[in-house]
């Protein structure tokens, strides 16, 4: 089963790369409003490199795929989002060393969020990717552990929670990252990193549903 999860993980990275490329301009537009207009380019370049790197792996297990994608993002993407996405993927990939199960998926999600918050020091309400991640991870964990939902259903609920989190970033003022330099002028704009986090999660769900 571990090898199948590895194959699915490669497909997930490829699907994320394609989706981010399709959303490149939109992400750039969002970052032009409250940042420096590089989020679309940063993410598209990084995920394309990650897709290339993981497709070169021979018979990879899921931990190796996620770690390789993270390392590639770390080396290809600068700015705030490179270390946040890349470093957290590398760190959380260790939770998948025994393969993909509902339990290891929850552990992966929690460790990923923990690392993003360790590194970035952002909380809910700071108008960052954390606003999408926190509700998503909590919903995923609760759906698996308390509601005993199938992991796919749990992931679908997590995506819906992330979507709400993205909408929540619009009316609030940025307190972390570049957008915070704008102060109140950041109000009324959707956060680019929360948005890319949602797209990534949507592709994870689509890929998981397909495998
Ligand atoms: P940069 O701001 O360095 O140009 P990007 O444009 O690639 O980097 O990424 C910006 C996104 O990074 C923001 O929209 C936000 O979601 C996320 N971000 C910035 N700072 C933090 C932080 N301290 N914690 C969590 N996420 C952050
Ligand atoms: Mg930027
Ligand atoms: Mg930048």
TrEMBL record:
Pfam families: Dak2. One of its GO terms (biological process) is glycerol catabolic process. The keyword Kinase applies. Residues 7-206 form the DhaL domain. GO terms for cellular component: cytosol. InterPro entries: DhaK_L_YcgS (IPR012737), DhaL_dom (IPR004007), DhaL_dom_sf (IPR036117), Dihydroxyacetone_Kinase (IPR050861). Keywords: Kinase, Transferase. It comes from the Archaea. This is Dihydroxyacetone kinase subunit L. It comes from Haloarcula mannanilytica.
């Amino acid at each position: 089963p571990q090898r199948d999860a590895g194959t699915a993980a490669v497909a997930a990275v490829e699907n994320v790369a394609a989706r981010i490329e399709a959303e490149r301009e939109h992400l750039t537009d969002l970052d032009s409003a409250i940042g420096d207009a590089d989020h679309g380019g940063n993410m598209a370049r990084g995920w394309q490199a990650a897709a290339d790197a993981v497709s070169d792996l021979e018979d990879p297990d899921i931990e190796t795929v996620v770690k390789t994608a993270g390392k590639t993002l770390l080396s290809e993407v600068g700015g705030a989002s490179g270390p946040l996405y890349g470093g957290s993927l590398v760190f959380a990939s260790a939770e998948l060393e025994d393969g993909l199960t509902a339990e290891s998926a929850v552990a992966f999600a929690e460790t990923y969020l923990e690392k993003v918050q360790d590194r970035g020091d952002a909380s809910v309400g700071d108008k960052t990717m954390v606003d999408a991640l926190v509700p998503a991870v909590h919903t995923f964990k609760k759906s698996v552990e308390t509601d005993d939902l199938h992991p796919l259903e749990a992931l679908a609920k997590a995506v819906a929670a992330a979507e709400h989190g993205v909408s929540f970033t619009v009316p609030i003022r940025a307190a972390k990252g570049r957008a915070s330099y704008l102060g109140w002028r950041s109000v009324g704009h959707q956060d680019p990193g929360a948005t890319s986090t949602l797209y990534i999660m949507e592709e994870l769900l689509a890929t998981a549903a397909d495998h």
